[in-house]
Design goal:
Number of helices: 14
Structural class: alpha/beta
Radius of gyration: 20 Å
Helix content: 40-55%
Distance between the termini: 31 Å
Number of strands: 9
Strand content: 15-25%
Order of helices and strands: EHEEEHEHEHEHHHHHHHEHHEH
Shape: globular
Amino acid sequence: MSSGLQYELLQRWDVDKLNHILQVDTPAFAGIPVTYTAARSAVKLYRVTYSSVIPEQNNRPIVATGLVAVPETQGTAFPVVSYQHGTVYGRQEVPSFPDQSPETALMIAQFAGQGYVVIGADYFGMGTSQEPEGYMVKGSHQQATADMIAASRAVLAHLGLNGTKLFLAGWSQGGFVTMALLERLEGAGVPVAAAATASAPLDVFATLNGFLSFPRPNDASWVSTLFILSSFSFENYYQVPGLARSLLSDEYYDLARRAYERQPINPQDVPTDLRKLIRAPYFDAQFFAASAYGRLVASAQAYRWIIRSPVRNYYGESDEAITAGIGRLAMTYQQAIGSGNTAVQAVSTGPTSHRGTFAQAVPSWKEWFDGLSRP
């Protein structure tokens, strides 16, 4: 392999394990019954270690990790799905530790078990990375995922295989990353057959502003985590000392820092009441928008360009984290600028929760991708 690129075989998941994921594990994870098409082939799972850079820090070189899942068939050419994972609390609840990532397991079972190569970046600061986490840091997310695509192509070539059409998919945070990656790839002229998301916070400022200014009765208890992870990530990656302390209350700052650094804490000690965690001035929308934190959050959007590729953004009408309005943003923006672009669609999964929206969307992604991957 080329310098800085390595891969190792982690495991082989047989058809029985894949179908158990589809029939038992995923419905338990999502809390709803969902019907998936059965896996047809076993899958080999590889952890990939590759070189990348942090664009927010003058392209400082780093090492990142991700997963390549390859169907065990006689074929040598496969469509590729780049899956971008959602927010997780453990550094190893990511693609290259697939047993610890139920969402990745579902993608492996539903896609790799039926003839797709599935790849997934762990993101900077996750997996085996020694960096601090770069949560919702747009440029770094784009870099990690684009470099993972390049690394996976090299791994496939080394295995004597070839990737054909490229598809993108992601849930929650990964939905944002998916659209950010699509923006990066379109800008570089890389063909993308289609991109699909579920519960994607395409405008992080609008999402967080909603939690502060217009809280809903069903807002998730873990919303406070989004402010913790983003404030420390922005402080580290954009190099703004004291940013997290300017947002978080003195009472909970040390606890929040330990949570971000993945040190042992009692999760029940993290306040679910944002007015305990966040300093009072931030509940004034004008203050929030003008603050250093608010201005950085405002840069975290992934829909404001003229989108060329087919896109479907799935959203749940009972999602405790993402409103239906956020879910429809990309489609609405394309309509608003008069592009006449009907290739960007928002699709409701009905009264589904955050996890339920993902679980419900995946078989629809599969059906759509199948139709597009045929010659």
